[in-house]
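Section: Multi-chain targets

For targets with more than one molecule, the full set of components is provided together so that the structure can be written out for the assembly as a whole rather than chain by chain. Components appear in the order listed by the source. The example entry contains two components.
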Amino acid sequence: MAIEVKIPTILRTYTGGEKAVEAKGDTLAALIDNLDDSHPGLKGRLITDDGALHRFVNVYVNDEDVRFTGSLETALKDGDAVTILPAVAGG
Amino acid sequence: MLRIDRAIHDAIVAHARRDHPDEACGVVAGPEGSDRPRRYIPMLNAARSPTFYEFDSADLLALYKEMAANDEEPVVVYHSHTATEAYPSRTDISYASEPNAHYVLVSTRHEDETEFRSFRIVDGVVTEEPVEVVDETR
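Its structure, encoded as tokens over all components, is:
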């Protein structure tokens, strides 16, 4: 099953400049593992050492922020669209 | 160097003054790769705080979709400091993740004088750059 993942500018160094790549997974966690297999290093930019989604990034599945849909346990199916964006925030 | 239209510069300052003492934030989008800030987009500070700002996550997604549809990117990302100088804080640096953007800081700490400064923030390194306010960049 193929899921399109949109990659923000800052992470395109991991995708050879591609704005979108395809990946597989039943959950967001599995998808990120799969992404890291084909684009090593990406996972470390998305997930903290404690295994949680990094606060510096927002991840959306079909326009829903995954913080409201189960975070890394969010279920995925064929044809879903995942968008990764850097949070715009500061102090 | 950041070269910016006077009208957009003034709109950013007015936004910062309007939201004081909370921090104001927004972007100026421009054609991808052009380095020209053209479209002023004030954003809501979802944190509504005098010491923190954050784009609402749904607003953020809508903004990036709109920019993608227009072949635009965020040329300027701006926010205000309302009690401290117009220099990126440690939090600003940790969040900065648009390597092509000019990070504009506005300080409204003095009532009669507004600081407006621009920085590049790449891999945690802050570099200040000159700002040229022009009457028309087109």
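The longest strand of chain A covers residues 81-86.
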